């Protein structure tokens, strides 16, 4: 029997399991803390061409088609004032890569599509309601596999562990101690509404009282809003709100937005909003060590980022693509069979490529967040930023740092830096195998 791989957390990491299973026929199990995946609940994402490339090249064209069926193209990017005045409008063509364009999608639809791809691949177990407590024998080495302890008292063993358990990762604690992301003083209230956007596109209005937000389509008749407010620390209130809590919150927020002169195109969706969640916006620099022994981190577990760039989930996808590519080019299935040194070589290469990209994403995200906040801080600062936005769109078609996010192609970048010839690697692939 081949090695057993355990994936902690069933977020974007499931795509990784499917990719590794496809390439190396590994025995794989995902352990997810949620009791079940539920339709219709939770937040949403923007998906950009850099992440869509991973979905296509690692997950396959069927997965890409499935994801895009559940998503809505942005088409335009509008920076606005709270009263509905447009400051600058960019066509999303400026971020397109071939036929890949940015789209909005509810998280549950993306998760469903990934799950269907995992089921198509077959042989991957998904065990729900399993919350990681701790890992034992992380170093593993030749003495044997890692022991995974769950909160319910059960335990399993695995040869290799991928920590895909998000920003509050317990896997990370076992690699580098407690390194929680840091709260930056802003909370986000988000939700969805069954109504089309009044104008096509994703829009970024800013208003008085240091409040800004983003409204974007996730379906022909569905949109999502995320409203950012400078707020003192109150982690107890960061959660999915109950319907009763949401009603109170929405009523107060809508009254405050109307008082401040926000356009009804922004207020109405909040009034009609469902699935209301409040999150404290937190981030931290990528951790210095992404792997130890038989355990490696993927996604927010290694580099939790604030959402202003809309690239957090894309970084998880790029991680998955990069790890799978490095493993393929540096020994294939043997990486998981032989001694730990080949696994560690792959992990080193993976971290070498991903660290600077994740750090850059973090810094860009902070910069974009600061820009939006500055627009809320008085007329002069606001006008200066608006001019900057307008000039960038006039000169470059959009903000240049958004292009750096969307253009990235993990295969091309990694292969160019390493001097790898991917065409020969592709000749060896199985008909059903990942298209790396
Ligand atoms: C308001 C907001 C808006 C955002 N918008 C965007 C956007 O537009 N585009 C974008 O790309 N990104 C966006 N992001 C970022 C994005 O949500 C994350 O970067 C992305 O989800 C990270 O994926 P992940 O798989 O690493 O972690 P997660 O998606 O957090 O998945 C982790 C999984 O692990 C599970 N888990 C956690 N702990 C345990 C445990 N102990 N045991 C077992 N399972 C566990 C969780 O239940 C979850 O299923 C946004 C984030 C926020 C807060």
Automatic annotation (TrEMBL):
The keyword Flavoprotein applies. InterPro entries: FAD-bd, FAD-dep_Monooxygenase_BioMet, FAD/NAD-bd_sf. This is FAD/NAD(P)-binding domain-containing protein. Residues 92-326 form the FAD-binding domain. GO terms for molecular function: FAD binding; monooxygenase activity. It comes from Gonapodya prolifera (strain JEL478). Keywords: FAD, Flavoprotein, Monooxygenase, Oxidoreductase. It comes from the Eukaryota. SUPFAM superfamilies: FAD/NAD(P)-binding domain (SSF51905). Belongs to the paxM FAD-dependent monooxygenase family. It holds the Pfam family FAD_binding_3.
């Amino acid at each position: 029997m081949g090695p057993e791989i355990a994936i902690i957390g069933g977020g974007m990491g499931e795509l990784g399991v499917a990719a590794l299973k496809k390439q190396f026929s590994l025995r794989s199990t995902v352990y997810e803390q949620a009791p079940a995946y539920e339709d219709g609940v939770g937040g949403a994402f923007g998906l950009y061409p850099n992440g869509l490339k991973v979905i296509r090249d690692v997950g396959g064209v069927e997965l890409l088609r499935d994801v895009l069926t559940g998503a809505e193209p942005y088409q335009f990017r509008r920076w606005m004032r709270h009263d509905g005045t447009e400051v600058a409008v960019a066509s999303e063509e400026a971020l397109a890569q071939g036929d890949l364009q940015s789209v909005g999608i509810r998280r549950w639809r993306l998760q469903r599509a990934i799950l269907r791809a995992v089921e198509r691949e077959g042989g991957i177990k998904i065990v729900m309601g399993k919350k990681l407590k701790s890992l034992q024998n992380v170093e593993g080495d030749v003495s044997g596999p890692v022991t995974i302890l769950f909160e319910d008292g059960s335990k399993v063993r695995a040869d290799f562990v991928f920590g895909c358990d998000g920003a509050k990762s317990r896997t990370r604690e076992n690699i580098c101690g407690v390194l929680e992301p840091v709260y930056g003083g802003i909370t986000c209230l988000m939700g969805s509404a069954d109504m089309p956007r009044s104008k096509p596109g994703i829009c970024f209005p800013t208003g008085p009282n240091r409040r800004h937000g983003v409204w974007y389509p996730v379906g022909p008749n569905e949109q999502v809003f995320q409203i950012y407010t400078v707020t003192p620390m109150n982690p107890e209130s960061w959660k999915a709100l109950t319907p009763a809590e949401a009603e109170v919150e929405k009523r107060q927020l809508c009254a405050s937005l109307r008082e401040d002169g926000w356009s009804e195109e922004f207020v109405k969706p909040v009034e009609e909003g469902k699935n209301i969640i409040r999150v404290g916006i937190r981030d931290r620099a990528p951790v210095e060590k992404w792997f130890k022994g038989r355990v490696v981190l993927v996604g927010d577990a290694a580099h939790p980022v604030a959402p202003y760039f809309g690239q957090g989930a894309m970084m998880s996808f790029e991680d998955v693509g990069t790890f799978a590519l490095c493993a393929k080019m540096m020994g294939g299935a043997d990486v998981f069979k032989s001694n730990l040194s080949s696994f560690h070589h792959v992990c080193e290469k993976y971290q070498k490529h991903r660290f600077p990209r994740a750090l850059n994403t973090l810094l860009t995200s902070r910069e974009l967040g600061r820009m939006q906040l500055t627009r809320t801080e008085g007329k002069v600062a606001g006008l200066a930023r608006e001019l900057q936005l307008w000039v960038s769109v006039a000169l470059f078609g959009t903000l240049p740092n958004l292009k750096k996010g969307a253009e990235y192609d993990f295969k091309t970048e990694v292969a160019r830096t390493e001097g790898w010839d991917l065409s020969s690697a592709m000749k060896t692939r199985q008909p059903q195998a990942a298209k790396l």
